[in-house]
Amino acid sequence: MNIFFKPTLVAALAMAAGIGPAQAQTTWSTLTGAAPIIIAHRGASGLLPEHTLAAYTKAIEQGADYIEPDVVLTKDGVMIARHEPILDGTTDVASKFGADRQSTRVLDGVSTKAYFASDFTLAEIKTLRTIQPRASRDQSFNGLYEIPTLQEVVNLAKAQSVQTGRSIGIYPEIKHSAFHASIFGAKVIEDKLVSALHAAYGNSAAAPVFIQSFEVSNLKYLNGRTDIRLVQLIDADDVKPDGSLSLVPPYAQPYDFVLDGDPRTFADLLTKAGLAEIATYADGIGPWKPYLLKTVDDGVDRDGDGVITAADRRVDGSTGVIEAAHEAGLLVHAYTFRDDAGKYGFTDPAQEIAAYLKLGVDGVFTDYTATGVAARSAVPEPGTTLLCLAGLAVVGCGYRKRKCGEVDRTMLDPSTRHAGLF
Ligand SMILES: [Ca+2]
Ligand SMILES: [Ca+2]
After folding, report:
1. Rounded Cα gap, residues 364 and 343, in angstroms
2. 96 CA to middle of ligand 1, Å?
3. Closest ligand (CA of 170)
4. pLDDT, tens only, 53-66
């Protein structure tokens, strides 16, 4: 069911009923009708080294509603912002500490030799400086910024909320809960996070905070201990030519399912039964975007550049997951939108985000906050809204409903595989 323009249709009908535009301004097909949120994925990570106060600050300047710190623990049990519990790819650790400080640990079933954050004290980690992990992105900020603690991220969001007059929320992700449990004890990272967030924001669903995780049992545990909103992340390994998701370990299942012998995959969590279960302990889902918008590699070179890339994929429309999640009362926050990678069926990154916003997502995670904000500003085009509100309304909006569901296929951009990139 395409419900993209339903609220504007409602607005048009409200006009016909004599209710003025001031009472009928909703234009979003989100769960609540509120505008979708722009979540700065690892900060403005497309521009600056990820998970730094500089990257978060830049994202806030560009209009982010939420900044996203991934959370891991140091040896002395301090929550810091890093995408992985290892330091290799995003810092200068190898130039400051010898190879004897590396260790081999099992991370989601994969034996990994690395500099693990859990082997370094906060004082040691504060001597490190961050680097841009993607070679294609600007390397000129390498060596400038330190790794922030979660508390420093909270302090930044609060200070920026006062300074800007906007609510700047935080969206912490508990990384590798089972891994942290194996080192620090069961649910230690969850308890630390809840304590810190309750101290900063109170125990309230109204707090400008979402807690996210790819695992399930820790979110169920948190549901019994906090009213702060919880989001179940949904991963996959890759997207197949026919648009279905590839589910290959370690991206096939929540890792606690692997440990518990639960055979269900991430895809199983998005069935009607799966969503109903998530709704018992969480407030939303955070799926990888191909779960929401179906695209097909049909071998057509749509942009005519002589090469078939992900950008050429045919866009077939909603998979129905957004509608089903909303039916279950769940928010949908889709990841990850990048100007420079992974645009299935699109070349223009703002057009890609706009397509998802039109489908009804409640938020998007993006490495490029400015692109997300611009895409949101452009949906729907003001002239169209005026046309609808002018009362040519039902017919006009019916027309827009089809137009808005269409997707620009003038695409040209190589895409990268998803695995491990969230
Ligand atoms: Ca994350
Ligand atoms: Ca092409």
Report:
1. 14
2. 26
3. 1
4. 999 999 999 999 99
How far does residue 291's CA lie from ligand 2's centre (Å)? 23
Cβ-based neighbours of 275, under 8 Å, separated by 6 or more: 269, 285, 324, 325, 327, 328, 330
**What are the pLDDT digits (tens) for 79-105?**
999 999 999 999 999 999 999 999 999
The verdict on residue 256 lying in a domain is yes
Around ion ligand 2, residues with a beta carbon closer than 5 Å are 301, 303, 305, 307, 312
Please check whether residue 320 lies inside any domain of the structure: yes
- The total domain count for the chain is 1
* Lowest pLDDT segment from 24-28, 267-271, 359-363, 409-413: 409-413
Cα separation of 357 and 4, whole Å? 9
Q: For 367-395, b where at least 16 C-beta lie within 10 A, e where not — what string?
A: bbbbbbbbbbeebbeeebbebbbeeebee
pTM of the entire structure?
0.86
* CA dist., res. 232 & res. 214, Å (int): 6
Taking only the tens place, the pLDDT of each residue in 208-266 is 999 999 999 999 999 999 999 999 999 999 999 999 999 999 999 999 999 999 999 99
Question: Is 307 inside any structural domain?
Answer: yes
Tokens 């979540």 found at: 39
Q: Which domain holds residue 331?
A: 6-79+140-405
Domain presence at residue 122 = no
pLDDT at 422: 53
The enclosing domain of 178 has a CATH number of: 3.20.20.190
